[in-house]
Amino acid sequence: MKIAKIMFIIILLVSPCYPQELGTPLTISRTVGDTLMPAERARLSLFPEVRGFKWAVFFLADDSTVNAKVHFGKSEQEARDSSVMGYGTLRSVHLRLARDSAACNDSAKVLLADGTLLIATVYGETRDKLYLETARFGQIAIAKNQVETIGWYNGTPAQGYFKLVTDPNETRAFVMPTATTPQAGKGYVADYELIFFTAAIGVTDWLMINGGTLLIPVRPENMIFNYGVKVRVYESPERFGVAAGVQMLNNFGFSGNAGIAYTVASYGDKDSRVNLAVGRAFESGGGSSMLYGISGDGRVSESIKLVAELWIMEHASWSPIVVGVRFFGSRLSADLGLLYPLGESLNSPIGIPVASLTYTF
Fold this sequence. Notes:
It is a single chain. It is built from five helices and 22 strands. Helices cover 10% and strands 51% of the residues. The protein has three domains: 2-99, no CATH class; 105-152, SH3 type barrels (Roll); 187-360, monomeric porin ompg (Porin, Beta Barrel). It has a twelve-stranded antiparallel barrel with strand order 11-12-13-14-15-16-17-18-19-20-21-22. Strands 1, 2, 3, 4 and 5 form a five-stranded antiparallel β-sheet that branches. It has helices at 2-14, 19-22, 38-44, 90-96, 101-104; strands at 24-25, 35-36, 53-60, 65-72, 80-89, 107-112, 117-125, 129-134, 138-143, 147-152, 187-192, 196-202, 207-214, 225-235, 240-250, 257-268, 272-283, 288-299, 304-313, 318-328, 332-343, 352-360. With 361 residues, it is mainly beta. The longest helix has 13 residues, at 2-14.
């Protein structure tokens, strides 16, 4: 054992550092990442022979062995880098991490682009690949561009749930828009109350256009067309965004048209979000009024959200509030709710059913 330690120290002292020969930077676990710091080294008992340990970076070689670059020295001024080639196999290094319960909790549901669902332990990650161990297929490597979604456990299964899929319908609550726009080329088609069809697409990552019409045959003067545009004008890393848009209702000259010009601010993410909107409703006859709205949603299980929105209209004797649930998968979502017209003469414990179905592409 002493001989092995001496040989390891000799390797550190005489091995120059050739980063280009070490391989691809390797994330050995979500808690450690690709850089091992002194506190992690002590907890995991990695590189115990190295005196003056500062940090170590892991790399994955073409033959699936793990190499490392170790930075060590009595002081930072005297510190040097040295390569450790063939530190172990990817699997053996992962087993060393068994001392760290947090690092061992890399269990995940991995949904592939072809629809295959894998329940796996992630024991390695590079820029392009995930290294998984499954009960059915054993150890496998999956290209990241083949992964549709990946959901990690929040603690143990009894303490949390998989976030395997995220809400695909994040551009609106029930009707009220959010500050989110789809990526360029992405969009959705939706049906409201079984009679109104609408579709939207991202022209760019920050510009969305939409349009729709009635699905039932009516006289031309009663035909309604809906179209609009939304521009995301600001988005911060702190989950805050702002968008502005115009939404029109038109029957092309038979009885006039109407629309809403609005600005909406959103705070949150795909699991929960709050939206505040202010706008002006107008019509071809020249009338207009201010409109204010607040909406929000919150995830309560793997595939269910609670959703609510309230509109306050200037000069109106009542305000609509909608509460309900959203059921969603990776692309399809369904909203079911009840609309309550709040007003002095319209208060009622019985709500008006509202429903929509949305497919995201």
